[in-house]
Amino acid sequence: MTASVQIRDLHFVPMLSEAEVQARVQALGEALSARFKGETPLFISILSGAFVFASDLIRAYEGNCEIGFVKLKSYTGTRSTGDVQTVMGLEKDLSGRHIVVVEDIIDTGRTLHFFLEHLRSFNPASLCTVTFLRKPEAAQFEVPVDYIGFDIEDKFVVGYGLDYDGLGRNIPGVYVLAEQ
Ligand code: IMP
Ligand code: MG
Predict the structure, then answer these.
(1) Kindly report the CA angle at 39 between 71 and 144, in degrees rounded to 5?
(2) What residues are labeled active site?
């Protein structure tokens, strides 16, 4: 693992090696395979960050499955309720399907909280959530999470799909912002 990574003005140091990440993703894939044995779950990955995790996770999944991708676009609403989000790319019929939502990281929980509400309105047979990372200290919205790769401290990280200003998604491990 590279000792450190420089992205623009920021310096990052190792947090999780590629081997640690791969071992954990493999275990999550096996747990999901056991849970959905005989079913054909539909994995829904939230772009952009979760595409790397989703790609490894479905290859660790044994059995038939489908994968779809959504883009959540947030914009500041004119009302005082704050951010409003729209979901783009959800074309499949979700009713009666076993849905597995795949997210890169749960920070405040806002993104997933909103998206799960949206999915419930389509009456899936079941809804489960998998996140690669979670920052428990940052939680502001209650989000049920069934499978978690790693709980981490409330610090900014890059790698394995996660970016800083669009960069760092291609790094195979996870790096954390260095203390100044
Ligand atoms: P939430 O809606 O507050 O849970 O934020 C989730 C989104 O914020 C993630 O899908 C990421 O795109 C982004 N995010 C949160 N924490 C980090 C981080 O440490 N590094 C990179 N992106 C992050
Ligand atoms: Mg994201």
Answers:
(1) 50
(2) 107
